[in-house]
Amino acid sequence: KKILLVAGTRPNFIKLAPLYHRIISEATEYRPYICHTGQHFDFNMSDVFWQNLELPAPDFQLGVKGSGVADTIGKTILGINEVVQQHKFDLVIVFGDVNATAAGAIVGAQSRVPVMHVEAGLRSFDRDMPEEINRIITDHVSDYLMVSEPSGIKNLQREGFAENKVIMVGNIMIECLLRTRQLWEHISLPHAIDAVYKNHPVVATFHRPENVDNKDNLNRVAEILTSFAATETVIFPVHPRTRAKLQESGLLEKLQKESNLLLTEPLSYFEFLKLVSNAKMVITDSGGVQEETSFLNIPCITFRKNTERPVTVELGTNLMMDLWNKTYSTQIEQHRNHIMGRERVSIPLWDEEVSKRIVNTIKRVI
Ligand code: UDP
Asked: Which parts of the sequence belong to the UDP-N-acetylglucosamine 2-epimerase domain (predicted)?
């Protein structure tokens, strides 16, 4: 039986890898094919993940270069459709909430190939986020919904999904982190990062459109980074989208002049995990980083209005913070003290068996 795994971005690659390897090693009756849509294509947003995660070259490389959501999803649909029409797949699997996710799910559904969504049911309840639209579309055309945290089950029940389509499998990103732990713990870091690594730096990542596309908000992000750097060493691996916006607005040069603020290229998966696991705290607007920090018990401050991953706030180490909150530094200090003073809480099914549960479902349905 033939399974098509669709991925387009950095977080997709991380979620795809454990499932790919599990199928190859433990479910040899299936042949997984990888389709890379091309949304992330730079060496440090794509190839380095392929290397770290020991993935083979994609079977299908679409190379889609879109100039916006509609353009990207449209071209990706056309590309995946060609692949699906030429090969008779028994299942299409999509991951997360990016444009490749929605495009893959739409093509599978229209071609009457069963669709499985890994990381189903997450909701921020904020349709200003392009990812929220992708989540809703994907779930509603999928046949099998693989859920990572309890809120996903509740959301899908509320939206009327049949119970037998929805399965709690746990968080596959955490499986990836665990399976590669021996490797990332021993990776050597770039010199400039290594020099401050032992002092528990603050790690920052920002790339959400609401924070970096809006000029006022981007200014505010720069202000927050600068104020952290007044008292801490801050390492900021800059996402290509954010770099372009900072450059446009003249903020890049300003930030580069801050002595305790180290701007770097996006880090490899292994470098990033090693750095985060030793960080004093992480400030972010990422989805996956909220989960990784929760698992690693590193305090995380998420500068967003909402999260689609509420378990990271309820059981994990995540504190949501409005970008414009004036008293954020006091609240952050209190949060850090709270996290550091308590026992690590484990989140149900965030373990090394997630892909096994998914494969068990595959075996049941195709
Ligand atoms: N990541 C990385 N290098 C970096 C920043 C992030 O390898 O410099 C990894 C990290 O594991 C993170 C994942 O990429 O969880 C997700 O990326 P991103 O924040 O871009 O996407 P989101 O989860 O917000 O969709």
From this structure: 25-363
